[in-house]
Please model this.
Amino acid sequence: MKAKQIRIALRSKPVFKKIILALLILAGSGSLSVYGDIYHYKNFVAGARSALMGGAYSAISDDAAGAYYNPAGIAFSFGDSLSGSANAFHNVNTKYKKAIKQTYDWERESSALLPNFFGMIKKYGKTALAISYVVPETQIEHQDQTYLNPSADLSKYNISLHSEDSVYMVGPSLSRKISESFSVGMSLHYYYREFRSQQNEYLEFTNSSTRLNYKSTKVIEHGISPRLGMQFNMGDTLVFGLMYDQTTLTSASYSYNNPYSIYDSANSSLGTELNSESNSNQRKLPSQLTMGMAYYPTPFMLFSTDLDYYKAGESTLEDVLNISMGSEIFFDAKNSIRFGLFTNNDSRPAVSSSTSGNEHIDMMGYSFGYASYSRSSSLTIGAVYSSGDGKSQIYGDADSRDMHRESLTMVFAATYNY
Model:
């Protein structure tokens, strides 16, 4: 019997109606993060000094991280340098409160260990060249949970999930001083994103019928990300920075497979089906405009702030404004501490009675770190923490649940000047 005939036959039986009811209650919750977290634009704060200052860096950018935050700033760097930072530990926990049977929380956790920035600068008088590698987004998520008696017709529900979602950017930068107080610069990064997800669901019903469900999703995106910047110094105490970025996809591929099988013990019947889809639709990524200011009240103290405005590229998303603030204080020529705070707001519309299957959570982040300097090198250690509360319509309708997310990143970095 063909899959379509089995599906029609099973639909006429009472047990199938119970299965569909249970799946509406539970299986929908397993399809939340089909694309990972592409709706927040500051999940990772790249670099070392920049990360621990909350990303408020467009008016500073005088090291290799400037290739990402504002390429105009690298013209003011001090000589040739190599920089690298490693997120020794990055963990994200998302909790959907009382999502199962209005009683049990549903949790998803992501952890990763990887370097998220490397860059080098070579100076030629008033001109600076740089090459940088940046990982502005990464998520490696694991989940293996079992729920007993989550509904009247379901005695057991098990979900096993593994997904990876990462963005990589690499490319050259060019910056030049127009005068001793003004510079311009440009970066041209190659953009690559890969998302893979595999999810298994096992449902055991009170009448001994079972369902085994498997979902596989793969997304590959290629693009280019030009960044244009300028920086202007007003004396020795005040600096302004401006940066514009528009990442454009040049190609994309999407594939989705969802085979499942249903066993009806009461009627000794088995149904199977394979749902699949593939396309090459390209997302329209937002454009970014960053305006920043840095203030040096003394040679041993620095305060900076950035405003990041993201213009939505798709009609289903909203414009986003993020703010970052940072500070660096030197105890002496060899030791400093850094502080930062930043917002990481959601580009999806707020959850309301007029939305369906939506999720919205705004985040607030904090950073702190210590740096030690020598004549030709520096070492940095610190942490970045963010959290937020929001709403999620996890069952694909207007019914919403409270959600909470926390993120912790440990940062280790080194810079060598030569």
